[in-house]
Write a structure and sequence with these properties.
With 102 residues, this protein is mainly alpha-helical. The chain has one helix and no strands.
């Protein structure tokens, strides 16, 4: 009797419980994997969108900076030219005055 009862208990313990656990594990893994995949896809899409936005912003910033640099360089060149011209004019005026005084 004892042996039979133990055998029945063992069978009951091993069979249905293991099956239930396996099914639950499979379902859990499937759901978790699906959710993870969806989340990963969403994350990847978000990351890609963010990267694209960042790249666009960087490109726009670079373009603006390049334009600003070009404008600043042009302004600097113009200023240099104006300063040189003004110096030349001042020198000419001084020379003219000196010659007139003489």
């Amino acid at each position: 009797m004892n042996d039979a009862a133990v055998a029945d208990n063992e069978d009951d313990g091993e069979g249905p419980l293991d099956d239930d656990n396996e099914e639950e594990e499979n379902h859990d893994h499937g759901n978790v994997n699906d959710d993870d995949d969806d989340d990963m896809m969403m994350m990847m899409m978000m990351m890609m969108m963010m990267m694209m936005m960042m790249m666009m912003m960087m490109m726009m910033m670079m373009m603006c900076l390049m334009m600003m640099l070009v404008v600043v360089m042009f302004m600097m060149m113009m200023m240099m030219v104006v300063v040189v011209v003004m110096l030349m004019v001042v020198k000419l005026v001084v020379l003219m005055l000196e010659f007139r005084h003489i």
